[in-house]
Amino acid sequence: MTSGTPLSSAALKNWLLEELCPYWSARIVDPAGGFFEGLNAQGQALKTPARTLLNQARSTFTFSLASLLGGDAQIRATADHGFAFLKHLAGPDERGMTWPRGMDAQGRVLNPSLDAYESSFVILAMGPGTTAPPVRPKPCTWGSRPTNACNTA
Q1: What is the pLDDT of residues 33-48, one digit of tens each?
Q2: How many other CB atoms are found less than 10 A from the CB of residue 118?
Q3: How many whole angstroms separate alpha carbon 59 and alpha carbon 54?
Q4: DSSP 84-106
Q5: N or C: which terminus of the chain carries fewer CB neighbours within 10 A?
Q6: No. of H helices and E strands in the chain?
Q7: What is the pTM of this model?
């Protein structure tokens, strides 16, 4: 991307799906569970054991939405990795379904407190993730307007 030059929405989408998401996906997925919390100045994962609900949910939401926008199989796999970790963390109790604010890569709770703001990102992450198709259908037109009607079974 070049600075100072306005980019079209198509160029931004391409940058998101072809450069930004693949870059982060290759670096933040922790095979032990969830996502690493950040990168150092050299672009390597900060392999700290602690995880935050905010980062796990927002990262899952980002890759889930990118998948809906037409991301490739790796982007979808990254979203699915996040979903699996969030599902592992979910704890039903007398308050309903809850997620702790802090945990380690194995999902062991480090901070059991609850936070509405952070939990709202879990809800956002689940929305697009439950509707993202494994393969993005091709759009069709009805007259001169694009529609998704042709993609229904």
Answers
A1: 999 999 999 999 999 8
A2: 20
A3: 8
A4: HHHHHH-EEETTEEE--SEEETT
A5: C
A6: 5, 7
A7: 0.78
